[in-house]
């Protein structure tokens, strides 16, 4: 996985094509489209890492943007209006949208004013996947009674993937060339992270080595194979199943809550949705039917 800092201008698809050319990779994909003018965190997965991208599409996002008001507004009114948009909100996707324009509910986790000067409002927002920040700005403008639009936008987080350790395309190109020519690994390791980095935001289920290969063949996880479980897992949650070494084995859907996993002795606790680890990495310690 590459935590890429997307520049303004190209589409996300174009950026993916550039990464494919730089690394001469067979499969490359991204974890959530950014409009051409939007900059910031664009997780790009390479080869086997593309198996995990779907998990990032549903992860929470954080953005920093500039909203331009169409008329002057009192600061106290602005702050009180911002507070009204924290929690569950309803949006209709913009006209230029790839999805059907129906009213949908989205959650705003936080919405902070960072700076307010003239008619420009610098803000930070943490939100559920699928939230339209342009629509959010328009709706705030309507609530204020003055109108507003999004002037500039940068994505700063996808799940736990943060802009602080992002890299630009030139960094990636230079690091790859140094590795190919001189075998110098430090920079390429800084640019390309393990698959597990994309699963940091998911609750974890740690399993025994003896259970790994069966899961790699598509088996469901049963309780005898479980060693540790994160707290607060609910039935239906997406979870990451990992080894004692922290290696990702699969992503699955919890068939039991944390409490049930700790109290019961048998039964299917995680149903596989995407197997990540290749077969044969761990020895088969199970009998084929």
What is this structure's SSE topology?
Elements lengths: L1 E5 L5 H12 L4 E3 L8 E8 L6 H5 L3 E9 L5 H10 L2 E5 L12 E14 L2 E8 L5 H12 L3 E11 L2 E2 L6 H14 L3 H6 L12 E4 L1 H8 L4 E2 L3 E4 L8 E5 L5 E7 L3 H6 L4 E8 L14
Parallel strand pairs: 3-8, 10-13
Antiparallel strand pairs: 1-3, 2-3, 4-7, 4-8, 5-6, 6-7, 8-9, 10-12, 11-15, 13-14, 14-15
Helix pairs in contact: 1-5
Structural overview:
It is a single chain. This protein has 289 residues and is α+β, with helices and mostly antiparallel strands. It has 2 domains: 2-163, Pseudouridine synthase; 202-275, PUA domain (Archaeosine Trna-guanine Transglycosylase, Chain: A, domain 4, Roll), CATH 2.30.130.10. It contains 8 helices and 15 strands. The protein has helices spanning 12-23, 53-57, 75-84, 133-144, 169-182, 186-191, 209-216, 258-263, and strands at 2-6, 28-30, 39-46, 61-69, 87-91, 104-117, 120-127, 148-158, 161-162, 204-207, 221-222, 226-229, 238-242, 248-254, 268-275. A hairpin with a 2-residue loop joins strand 6 and strand 7. It is globular and about 70 Å long.
């Amino acid at each position: 996985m590459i935590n890429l800092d997307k520049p303004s201008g190209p589409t996300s698809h174009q950026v993916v094509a550039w990464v494919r050319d730089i690394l001469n990779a067979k499969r490359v994909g991204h974890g959530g489209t950014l409009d051409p003018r939007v900059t910031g965190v664009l997780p790009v997965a390479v080869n086997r890492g593309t198996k995990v991208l779907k998990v990032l599409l549903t992860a929470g996002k954080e953005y920093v943007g500039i909203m331009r008001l169409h008329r002057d507004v009192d600061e106290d009114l602005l702050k009180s209006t911002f507070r009204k948009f924290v929690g569950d909100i309803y949006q209709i996707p913009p006209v230029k949208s790839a999805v059907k324009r129906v009213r949908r509910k989205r959650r705003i986790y936080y919405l902070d004013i960072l700076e307010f000067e003239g008619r420009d409002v610098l803000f930070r927002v943490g939100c559920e996947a699928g939230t339209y920040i342009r629509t959010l700005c328009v709706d705030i403008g309507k609530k204020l009674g003055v109108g507003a639009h999004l002037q500039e936008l940068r994505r700063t987080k996808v799940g736990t993937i943060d802009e602080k350790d992002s890299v630009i395309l030139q960094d990636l190109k230079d690091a790859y060339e140094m590795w190919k020519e001189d075998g110098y690994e430090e920079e390429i390791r800084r640019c390309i992270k393990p698959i597990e980095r994309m699963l940091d935001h998911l609750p974890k289920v740690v399993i025994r080595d003896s259970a790994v290969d069966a899961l790699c063949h598509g088996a469901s996880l049963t309780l005898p194979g479980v060693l540790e479980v994160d707290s607060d897992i609910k039935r239906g949650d997406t979870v990451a199943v990992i080894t004692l070494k922290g290696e990702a084995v699969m992503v699955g859907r919890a068939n039991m809550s944390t409490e049930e996993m700790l109290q019961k002795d048998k039964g299917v606790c995680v149903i596989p949705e995407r197997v990540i680890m290749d077969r044969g990495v761990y020895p088969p310690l199970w009998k084929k039917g």
